[in-house]
Amino acid sequence: MNMALMEESLAAVCARLPACRPHCALIAGSGWAPALDALATRARTRYADIPHLGALAVPGHPGELRLATHAGCEALVFAGRRHWYEGGGWEPVALPVYLALKLGASVLVLTNAAGGIREDLAPGDLMTITDHINAMGVNPLVGNRDPLWGPLFADQTCVYDAPLRLCLDAAAARSGVALTRGVYAAVSGPVYETPAEIRALRAAGADAVGMSTVPEALLGSAAGMRVLGIACVSNRAARSNAPRLNHADAVAVTTAAAPRMRALLCALLEDIPKYAALPRESA
Ligand code: HPA
Question: Does some domain include residue 281?
Answer without folding.
Answer: no
